[in-house]
Amino acid sequence: MVEMSDMVAGGYYASTALFGIGGAGFALATRDRLYAYFALHALAVGALALTFPPVSPVADAVEPWHIACRIAAEGLVVATIGLGIAHLLAPRLSGLLGQAIKCIFPIGLMASASSLWFLFNIDATFIYALVMLAVILTIAAALAFGIARRHRAAIWIAVALAPLLGVGAIAAVMDGFELGSMQNYAEGMLLGFAFELVCISGLLAVRFRTTLRERDAAMAEAVAARNASEIDALTGIANRRVFEHDLRNTPHESYTALAIVDCDHFKRINDQFGHATGDVVLQSIARSLDCVPGKAMRIGGEEFAVFLTAPDWHRELELLREAIAHQTRHALTGLEIVQNVTVSIGAVELSQGRPTEQALMLADEALYRAKRLGRNRLEIQLSFQAEAPTNPQIACAA
After folding, report:
1. How far is it, in rounded angstroms, from Cα 16 to Cα 22?
2. Where in the chain is the domain with CATH 3.30.70.270?
3. Per residue in 101-137, pLDDT tens?
4. 307 bridge partner residues
5. Bridge partners of 263?
């Protein structure tokens, strides 16, 4: 056999180490065990390559220690191949073939461990060769079955392992039936391993891209689910869950006031014109609320809350009340319904810049006061002073 140059050998060992480290990195990043199996396989291939020239002194060495080292490395290679194939194909195979695929890994480990026995029984290596031949045939049968079922992974692996399995099968037949040693065995194995690693790397690259695509889709679904849990389906603005969250947690934005907006005589609208018309009214109110500086939420049937950020929030709320009357009138005119819709608003100043349960209670009190005073009006509670008189220039009836 022609020995490999030191440069080629060094490149081969460095490549297997790089494949091993890269596979381990991908395994940690994706939590996909297949990358870990590939990393172990690449390192096992590197270990086997160390038993070939130029590291091993001669190609056809027959010293027991040399044969034992090669058998130990070959057993690890077979075991790691078994891990990968079982991971990809075993769930898709049934019956005896599926069980046989799962047995490749322990057989490989046992073959590696049996290398110690061959230190003292070198003449029994034909047994090992026959076992490896059975393993190769099992792998070939599993891949053929997978290809027949049109499993893409089986096609990739079959292409990747074809040279390696061919060289291994020839060597196993010759050793198992004592037909002599295969010429250029080491070269054939190293070339087969190089081809396999390149092909499997391609498979894993495709798998990694698929994993990223699935992860992005899962993240998009999670965002959609979160939005669905935080967005009111009818009006498209935030729902009560968001409102209660902001009451319990310090918001990122500093607010100037909290307002509760309630549609006047909404039950009468539903009873007179139907729930579909009521939905149109609520959607019109939500569109008006969404234009107010701050954060609008639907917190009940016809009740809304607004966290305002404008310094002149008193004026904004008055404009809001008028805008809702105009917006709902326009929407109902499109339905050929003549009906004026008004809202009552209760508001409280947030001196600390954040809404609280106390602020909600005071805003509710202001809202109830607006209802008692005739509806279609804005009532304001100043700075948590529950008994403070309402400024007549601010709280006005329309």
Report:
1. 10
2. 240-381
3. 888 999 889 988 888 776 667 677 788 888 889 999 9
4. 258, 295
5. 343
Instruction: Please say if the pLDDT value at position 58 is more than 50.
Output: no
Instruction: Report domain 6-223's class.
Output: mainly alpha
Closest CA to 282 of 296, 295, 301: 301
Tell me the two tokens of residue 105.
């890994």
**Cα–Cα distances in Å, from 311 out to 233, 256, 323, 351?**
31, 7, 19, 12
Omega prior to 355 cis, within 30 of 0 = no
How far is C-alpha 279 from the geometric centre of its chain's CA atoms? 37
Which residues face 308 on adjacent strands? 257, 294
The CA dihedral of 75, 78, 79, 84, to the nearest 10 degrees, is: 160
Q: What is the CATH number of domain 240-381?
A: 3.30.70.270
**Tokens 């891949």 sit at which residue?**
143
Tokens of 16: 């297997």
Q: Which of 5, 118, 122, 113 is nearest to 55 (CA)?
A: 5
- Are 282 and 302 in contact, with CB atoms under 8 Å apart? yes
Segment (H or E) for 288 = helix 275-289
C-alpha closest to that of 48 among 88, 2, 79, 90? 79
> Does 4 score more than 70 pLDDT?
no
For residue 285, pLDDT beyond 80: yes
pLDDT tens-place string over residues 236-268 = 999 999 998 888 886 767 899 999 999 999 999
Supply φ then ψ for residue 239, to 5 degrees. -105, -170
Dist CA 259 CA 363 (whole Å): 6
From 115, 211, 112, 97, select the one nearest 154 (Cα to Cα): 97
Are residues 380 and 362 in contact, defined by beta-carbon separation less than 8 angstroms? no
Rg (CA), the chain: 38
The CATH 1.20.1070 portion of the chain extends over: 6-223
Alpha helices, H only, 31-63: 33-49
